[in-house]
Design a protein that fits this description.
Distance between the termini: 9 Å
Largest sheet: 7 strands, parallel
CATH topology: Rossmann fold
Number of domains: 1
CATH class: Alpha Beta
Radius of gyration: 16 Å
Shape: globular
Structural class: alpha/beta
Strand content: 15-25%
Strand order of the largest sheet: 3-2-4-1-5-6-7
Number of helices: 8
Helix content: 40-55%
Number of strands: 7
Order of helices and strands: EHEHEHEHEHEHEHH
Oligomer: single chain
CATH architecture: 3-Layer(aba) Sandwich
């Protein structure tokens, strides 16, 4: 299964979500394709001791070859950079699931509307899911996002990934939330996203 974490806006938490989601698939062959020019997942993986197979295709053809090689029982998570490009569009078009992380801020909702326009230009057969990501722990009202999502053929996941320091601190150490003993809520949130995408 190819899961692409996509949004043309930077800073929405694509890389963080992709990293922890990749580690949630136990007993599965998992690889990551890092298309972000910041190479966050590539460098975090080096810090971690190369625990995952992180690839960085440099062309559309190279990307498609990697995606075509994904076995039915393998998980491939693609981290798309926060910009519009041919290689990012190809990743979106060749996905089984597209995950769009979004927070409750008005600037993110406006960015989401821009990204919607790009999606309409593409041939997308994949399921498109929106996940509330990096959400303040006290926020309960998501009407503005629900309204934006409901106008499209997208599904808003039930799982809400809250803003938690542990997501970034574990990545900074080359680790992930499934390696730390506590932080049960953070683990449940990532597992919730994983299970809804299955």
């Amino acid at each position: 299964m190819i899961i692409t974490i996509a949004h043309t806006k930077g800073g929405v938490g694509k890389s963080t979500l992709a990293w922890h989601l990749a580690h949630s698939f136990k007993n599965k062959e998992v690889k990551i394709i890092d298309l972000d020019f910041q190479q966050t997942l590539y460098f975090v993986n080096i810090i971690s001791g190369d625990t995952l197979n992180v690839l960085q295709p440099l062309s559309v053809d190279e990307l498609i070859n990697e995606l075509d090689a994904v076995a039915p029982d393998e998980i491939c998570i693609v981290d798309v950079g926060g910009f519009d490009s041919d290689i990012n569009r190809a990743a979106i078009e060749h996905s089984d699931r597209i995950v769009i992380p979004i927070s409750e801020s008005i600037t993110e909702v406006l960015g989401f509307r821009t990204f919607e326009g790009i999606l309409k230009e593409l041939k997308v057969d994949a399921e498109i899911h929106v996940v509330l990501n990096n959400i303040h722990p006290l926020t309960k009202n998501f009407d503005i996002i629900k309204e934006a999502v409901s106008k499209n053929k997208m599904k808003l996941l039930n799982t809400v990934v809250r803003s938690r320091k542990v997501f970034k601190t574990t990545m900074g150490d080359g680790s992930h939330i499934f390696k730390v003993a506590d932080h049960l809520l953070a683990k449940q949130e990532i597992l919730g996203v994983r299970d809804e995408l299955r």
